[in-house]
Amino acid sequence: MLAAPQNERIVRAVVGAACGFLFAVALVAANMPLLPGADVNVACVVVAILGALIALAVPVRWIAVLAAIAAVAVYMVAFTPLAAGRVRAWVRRDPPPTRPPDAVVVLATTISTDGLLDATGTTRLLSALEAMRQTGAGMLVTTRPRQAPPGSTNAYLADYRRIIGLAGDTSRWRAVGPVATTHDEALATSQLLAPASGRSIVVVTSPLHTRRACATFEAVGFSVTCWPSDERRYALNTFVGIRTRIAALVDWLYERAAVFEYRWRGWMR
User: Which of 25, 26, 45, 209 lies in the 20 to 30 Å Cα band around 193?
Assistant: First the structure.
């Protein structure tokens, strides 16, 4: 008598696991974020297990309804420019300062196992060098992430020095850290620039990070000009393409959640 219900549960679990696995593979194939920092194979297995658990816990009719809603939502996000206005409005871009600031501060990203800047970090640094030239700032400040690959610190700093040297003088460059959060970056920069009279800075970071980053630096007492770097991972300005729309929306949702956390912690107003 118990065989039929048991078999039904097994079938539901298998179907749920298969759906979860296919969903994970689709994200990987589209080069979309899955589980940050996780091995792709492990992430696919984890998502498959979650799919099986959901299929066992939720009635089939509700799974069908949720799948339909998810399909419509994905279509609206990926195939229409529905989110373009909200995403682009999140970017903070201030007018250039009227007087030379004390420093241009470029925020950290991840570094490779070879100790090199990733693509986003390189783009931020190039934009910061442009800001130095346009504003006449007296100092360039970079931040060093705390979670760096073992033994990569010297190579990381050498890569910074090499890129900065291509644009000119490296004597005005200062590095602070290690840092784990944007709040850490603001505190470390504040300690470095404590003697500065005006405490005016230009903060350079990725476009969708600008709102949170600049507010965090303002919360520790800086007068901030927000300077978004170019976004080269996807077409933020034209908002064309499935990858652009999904990746930009993921970044936007992450930043909105991070702003909520920073306000809760008292790190920004």
Answer: 209
